Amino acid sequence: MKRKIAVLGATGSIGKNTLDVIASYPDAFEVVLLSANRELKNLLAISRTYPDAKLALADESNTSKADADKVSYWGPEGIQQAVRESGAQIVVNGIAGAPGLLPSITALETGADLALANKETIVMAGPLAFALAKTHHCRILPVDSEHSAVFQLLEAHGRDSLEEIILTASGGPFRQYTKEQLEQVTLNDALAHPTWKMGGKITIDSASLANKGLEVIEAVRLFEVPPKQVKVLVHPQSYIHSLIRLKEGSLYAQMSRPDMRVPIHNALFWPEVRYCQFGRLDLEGQSLSFEKPREDLFPMLPLAYKSAEAGSGYPAAYNAADEEAVAAFMKGQISFTDIGRVVEQVLQDQWECEELVLDSILEIDKRARSVSKNIIKELFRC
Fold it and tell me: Per UniProt, where does 1-deoxy-D-xylulose 5-phosphate bind (predicted)?
């Protein structure tokens, strides 16, 4: 019997790769919902392949009435309603940034399994998401290549024997830059990732190592380990997606070509292990290299560790500040290196909260964005 599946962020990188996987297994899934942020034309093109799927669009602007009649759900609240009414058994959340949080929460409340590429869900509200998954007897399955790798490795070797998790990073396009060169980075420079094809915000996060910082926080919460047990290693070839070290000293790695269809495939079929045609790696003639991240030049990584150590509302504040700083950089208001400066100043504020419930998380997110905008305005006269 086909599993009913909803694809959120269908026009983005994760969404397109998910639909590619689904198309490769036509007898496995029934697409019941497709959502996009504002790319209605692309969403309609995709829907021609899945004519029975309901359509949802987060942004209502610049939409003709003729096209609008084909969409069943509108706005952020409409996305949540669409998830609630879809009957999906598995929801793939490929929405970028904090807007992906509430659809994740809604999916878990329906009892659907959540194939999660939206790392902000765990960074901002991990404890809440896990509690909902437990209450509604559903699963959170990581789609990030690094966390998917760790998930597989821990499934194979068990958590009791774990000593540390090692997340790999490509190092981004500025891995070998000097401080002076980083000060001159342009938007086009930051959007040129050497390995992965992704959206603009996550590509810039990869260049600043903020993406790796978010992944550190995600790993801490997802696998319930202290920050000191999560290490980062730069691996420019991006063939090894993560490693674990066991207490007896052995290192185990998950390897494949950098292809997001691999972790998506694994999430969609878990716990079944199916043949996967994607990302197959031939090691003959390949070389692998590793180096430490340059935390002195890429402060977003150590700031993430500090946020993970502090816990409470600090990870949510880190994420909100980064999103606002990246948006300001993309508008030409601040420089690439100012991103870390803004986030550092935001984290100097107080982000403790008594209980991480949804209302308090959203309030932290809102306040951190306001603080970030004020810092950007005051320090950089934007």
Answer: 119, 145-146, 170, 193, 206, 211-212, 215
Q: Is 289 annotated as a binding residue?
A: no
212 is in an annotated binding site: yes
Whether residue 113 is found in the same domain as residue 151: no
Residue 14 annotated as binding site: yes
DSSP 3-state assignment of 260? coil
**86 is annotated as contributing to ligand binding:** no
Positive or negative torsion for Cα 305, 310, 315, 321: negative
Q: Return the CATH number at 81.
A: 3.40.50.720
SS3 of 17, please?
helix
Residue type at position 110: T
**In this structure, are 15 and 127 located in the same domain?**
yes
The pTM assigned to this predicted structure is: 0.94
Residue 106 is assigned to a ligand binding site: no
- Give yes or no: residues 232 and 322 share one domain: no
Is 144 labeled as ligand-binding? yes
- Say if residue 75 is in the same domain as residue 180: no
Task: Note down pLDDT in tens along the chain; length 382 residues.
Answer: 899 999 999 999 999 999 999 999 999 999 999 999 999 999 999 999 999 999 999 997 756 666 778 899 999 999 999 999 999 999 999 999 999 999 999 999 999 999 999 999 999 999 999 999 999 999 999 999 999 999 999 999 999 999 999 999 999 889 999 999 999 999 988 887 666 566 788 889 999 999 999 999 999 999 999 999 999 999 999 999 999 999 999 999 999 999 999 999 999 999 999 999 998 999 999 999 999 999 999 999 999 999 999 999 999 999 999 999 999 999 999 999 999 999 999 999 999 998 889 999 999 999 999 999 999 998 776 5
228 labelled binding-site residue: no
Matching residue, tokens 């950098």: 258
Q: Is 11 annotated as a binding residue?
A: yes
Nearest to 266 by CA among 282, 278, 281, 257: 278
